[in-house]
Amino acid sequence: MKFKKLSAVMAALLAASSLLVACGGNSGGQDASGSEPENAAADETETESESEGEGQEAAASGDEVTLELLLTKTEIVDVMEQIAAKFCEENPGVKIDVTSTSDGATLVRTRAASNDLPDIMNTYPAEDFYKDMFRDGYFEDITDAEYLGKVNSTAMEMSNCDGNYYAVPMSLSTYGIYANMDVLEANGITETPSTWEELIADCETLKANGVTGFLLPNKDVGNVAQRFERTAGIINNDSNSEFKQIADGEMEAKDSPTLQTWCDYNEDLLNYTTDDHMGMDYDIAAAEFSNGNGAFMLSGTWMLATVQKNNPDANVELFAFPHPRGETTKVPVNIDTSFSISSTCADKEIGLKFLEFMTREDIAQMYCDADGNVSTIEGVEYNIPQHANMKTAVEEGNIFLTAVNFWPTGLREEIRDGCQMFLGDGDREAFFESSQEAIETIYADN
Amino acid sequence: MGDKKKKGKSRRDKGRDRAFLFFTAPGFILYSFFFIMPVLMGFYYSATDWDGISKNYNFIGFDNYVKIFRTGQFTDALFFTIKYTVLLVVLTIVLGLAIAMLLNRKIKGRTFFRGIYFIPAVLSSLTVGLIFNKICYYIIPVIGKALHIHALSQNPLADKNLAMWTILFVNLWQGLCIPTLLFLAGLQSVPTDLYDGAALDGASAWDIFRYITIPFILPVVSVVFVLTLKGGLMVFDYIKAMTEGGPGSSTRSVAMLIYKHGFTQNKYAFAIAEAIFMGLVVAAISAVQIYFTNKKKAV
């Protein structure tokens, strides 16, 4: 008798677990079945009705609607907390939880896989990774939103995905060379260089005075990858076509002008860096630069916040990376911050309201002042003297969308090991060999 | 009479079996759900071209497995991992045993030392990695320069020959605690009268170690061997925190490679295929290890 009861309990447990398993399997099957639009639509109506229900409940009982705002840029957490607080003040009954991570890609991947994307988050609409997610319906289509009219047309063009929009671009990051003006002035240099020869001449002057010219955090393989990607783009704005030729066997990596120039300019700069550049991480390099222990550092507009945190009195200026072969210099830009709401957002109405709120002139101004990147919102004044050169470049259209948006996914991460080795041992042949393999593998996979 | 007794016993046995079944069931269900299911799903996904996010994917059969050896990356990473594991296992057993034997002696402040040696075990390995990352940049070069040791006058993590040894050192610094504790417990289970007897018979210290200590702590050595083997073959967090596989790819373990393909290059299904292949390698190594352990036991 007892045994029967027990076995009944066991059977129930097993049945329950198999049900769970079946559920899991089922959803996987749906995913694979290719009837995705239908399902997505069904899901949407479901969540909508759910959220409506919640909204009504909230209104009736005075409960709060809590939305998560995920930031994959940790340097904007403070200002976004202030903006979120302002938003909540204007919208009683709404609570915004600001969360952040420095490893955005991994977190977004994991949360997307478990269908648990944050309600609102910052995305990079020009990158393939996010474009694929847009196409898969992970984020809300906001093409018809009125406030998109306030966004700069270049930025809109960059964030277009098959004719639709899923994100509100807030700012453009630009990349170049930061100069610590105090260090330069102490060595009799009053202006930032505008050609490669001037840059090298300045470095020579600094070297003669025993001052470090360039801080190159070469231990930080992520930074090496980014430097490679941005500067390869400066050397050849259409680096993708060149690498494609390599992948198709029309050219060998060792004959690639872009890769050769990359090696040349790095060989130059390595003469003016610290002895321990191969052991230096990005945060250490940024701290050394902020404190005047080096004159130049390659980075983008996002570094200003870090510099000012390290040393509020730092006198720095960002200027365009001069073309190492003397050709026209263009500034690489990327959409830096843009906000999207996920299709699983707990209350889409409020989510959309938040996007609109972000484009309001006073809020966009507040964001721009803290973030330091060139704002894309109409009416926002760009008051960052350190980035005056970049503002001019954007206004004059002397810019190009950075290479990572055109390269196949993973190229940057595949080629960076060879780049790091080259920076350490200067072995060109090994570098060309590893680049050849990396380019062939990645282009074959995509 | 005997039959009755037997019958009663068997009923009791049945009851006990049921109780055992009852206690085993939750574990079994949880294990199936959280372990066996994901493994099966892993096999399923490894036969697709899924990127980890997309809602659509295609079946491509064994293509991912064929691709593993398309470049030398996997073999290089596997070679590094095996080299690292062998060094880790040998050093853990030798050093762990040595420290345990020292701590087992009647020395002054024994409890204090036992406590001190255990402290690293309570830290997370990622934290330890990050701390040593800073030590390697700020402190080691200063010491190296002061002592005129050329190799240590720069960040050892930046040197492709020294990076692995540095990671190994940090791994041992933290990873020795638990094995030492296990060895210490093992040593204390050796009956002291055996030592006394051996000493009376005039056995040398080495003989005592070889013929009394070793046989008694052999089961512990076996446990430590398995634990360290697993830790070495799966090494990830120290490398992630200290070198990210660099300089170049000189400290890239298989786990790092899987992470790189899965999480930085969107080749999710391919990374799963690599993980399954690595799983098979680990299974093969474990089979050899179990075979030898059983053989030892039989003798």
Automatic annotation (TrEMBL), chain A:
Biased composition of type Acidic residues is found at 41-55
GO cellular component, as recorded = ATP-binding cassette (ABC) transporter complex, substrate-binding subunit-containing
State any GO BP term from the record: maltose transport
Q: Hey, what's the signal peptide range on this chain?
A: 1-22
Is Kinase one of the keywords? no
Q: Which keywords does this chain's UniProt record carry?
A: Signal, Transport
Q: Which domain of life is it from?
A: Bacteria
Chain intervals for the UniProt region annotation (Disordered): 26-64
Nucleotide-binding keyword on record: no
Q: Which GO terms describe its molecular function?
A: maltose binding
- Gene3D superfamilies membership: Periplasmic binding protein-like II
- What does the sequence similarity comment in the record state about its family? Belongs to the bacterial solute-binding protein 1 family.
The protein depicted here goes by the name Extracellular solute-binding protein
Naturally occurring in which organism (per UniProt): Parablautia muri
UniProtKB/TrEMBL annotation, chain B:
Write down the membrane topology. Multi-pass membrane protein
Q: Which GO terms describe its biological process?
A: transmembrane transport
Annotated compartments: Cell membrane
Main localization, broad class: membrane
- Protein's UniProt name: Sugar ABC transporter permease
Q: Which parts pass through the membrane?
A: 20-45, 84-103, 115-140, 162-187, 208-229, 268-292
Quote the CDD domains the UniProt record gives: TM_PBP2
Q: Name the PROSITE patterns on file.
A: ABC_TM1
Q: Which domain of life is it from?
A: Bacteria
The UniProt family comment states:
Belongs to the binding-protein-dependent transport system permease family.
Q: Where is the ABC transmembrane type-1 domain?
A: 78-289
Keyword annotations from UniProtKB, A to Z: Cell membrane, Membrane, Transmembrane, Transmembrane helix, Transport
